[in-house]
Amino acid sequence: MINTETLKSDLNELTVYQLRSLQYAIAKKLEEKAAAKANKSENGLLTDEELDMLAEVMRN
Questions:
Q1: Rounded distance, CA 49 to CA 34, Å?
Q2: What is the pTM of this model?
Q3: pLDDT digits (tens, 9 = 90+) for 3-53
Q4: In which region does residue 29 sit, left (phi positive, over 0), alpha (psi from -120 to 50) or beta (all else)?
Q5: What angle do CA 49, 7, 15 make, to 5 degrees?
């Protein structure tokens, strides 16, 4: 799992363009997970690690 303080530091150094690219990548991943969930209802939408990463991105 990614250290939260390291992730915060890394995110604070990103440019607006990089943050938008990250936002796009996360949205794409969410779409893929949603499509996979439609095919397999027993799978969760996001893993705990992905939820932690998304929460950190949304806080900044």
A1: 17
A2: 0.48
A3: 888 888 888 888 888 888 989 999 999 999 888 777 665 555 677 788 888
A4: alpha
A5: 120
Q: Give the per-residue pLDDT at 8.
A: 84
- For the chain, the structural domain boundaries read 4-58
What residues have CB less than 8 Å from 33, skipping those under 6 apart? Answer: 43, 45, 46
With beta carbons less than 8 A apart as the criterion, state whether 59 and 52 touch.
no
CB 4 within 8 A of CB 59: no
What are the tokens at 21?
Answer: 């690219």
